[in-house]
Sequence to fold (165 residues):
Amino acid sequence: MAAPQSNAPISTTRLKQIAMDACQSAIGSAEFYEHPKVEGWNAAIINSVLRALISEATPSGSQAPAHKFVVNSTIIQHLVPTSALNKPKGGSESKSDNPSISTSDTGGISSATATDGKPHVGRRGMHSATQAFWSEKTDGMWSFKYDGGESKGMDIVISVIWIGL
Fold:
């Protein structure tokens, strides 16, 4: 993730704690990736991070923080189907057959392979980059990957951008 920012409106240690708390609050009760809930999870994460940033970055006696903030939350689904997590897809019935990870319907036989030729392990690749033209004295960005989503079949990446006023 990004290198520590000396111009961050609050410490990067505190930024990390805010991001971890927001993710845990949003997906803590989830057992696995559920597409219909992702919009709500992202909104909860973003709103929680923004509220904390605004609250903690506003100087005492001031009405507003000395920065504008942009928060992005990205939730990436692993290629592990619900059955591979031993979770029923839609109801409370248990899954009795052996889980199989596959990216296509091959009659239950997984033939998907990664770029190195090994069997697919149920992960998607992702690369993201951001570049900006701004004042390095007052503006900056920070990104964070929440590790708590791994066991739930998802990755969560949060980015925070601040621009001095």
About this structure: Residues 35-57 form the longest helix (23 residues).
